[in-house]
């Protein structure tokens, strides 16, 4: 098996590196929002203290916005999830494989999301025999 897959390893790693590079942008952007909020660099933003409740602005910008940005990164990972298989199977270039993966997953959003959830290994309730 190693002999057959060794020739595709470099190409697969290049596609994976390109996919991760696309997802690093949203990951760093979400982290930058968190850092800006924690360092009080956002104008008009008041961090909650022990005695004061969190304001709506803090909840929206400081907590929900980073999660939405990270969700966008996960969407990118899902859309590019077929790129490695396309690169190896069809012998396309890395960027052509990513374009093809984007096209294939455009119409199959629910199936792609379902496969991602299955891949995450969503815990099931234990069966008692």
Task: Provide an overview of this structure.
By secondary structure, the chain is mainly alpha-helical. Helix content is 73%, strand content 0%. It contains 5 helices and no strands. It has helices at 2-38, 56-79, 83-90, 94-106, 109-120. The chain starts with a helix and ends in a 9-residue tail after the last helix. The model has no long low-confidence stretch (mean pLDDT 83).
Dominant shape: elongated
Radius of gyration: 20 Å
What is the terminal separation in angstroms? 39 Å
Q: Helicity, in percent?
A: over 70%
Structural class: mainly alpha
**Beta strands, count:** 0
Question: How many H/I helices?
Answer: 5
Low-pLDDT stretches = none
Reported for the largest beta sheet, the result is: none
**Average pLDDT over all residues:** 83
Question: Which range does the strand content fall in?
Answer: under 5%
Order of helices and strands: HHHHH
